[in-house]
Amino acid sequence: MFNSNSPQSTPLSSPEVISSQAPTVQTTEASQKNAQSEARRRQLNEDIRASEQRNNATGGDIQRGGHLASEVRSKLEANIPNGQLTVDAAEDGTVTVSGTVNNQDQLAKIELLSKQIKGVKYVVVKAVVAPSTNQ
Question: Of all residues in the chain, what percent are helix, strand and coil, respectively (each to 5)?
Answer without folding.
Answer: 50, 15, 35
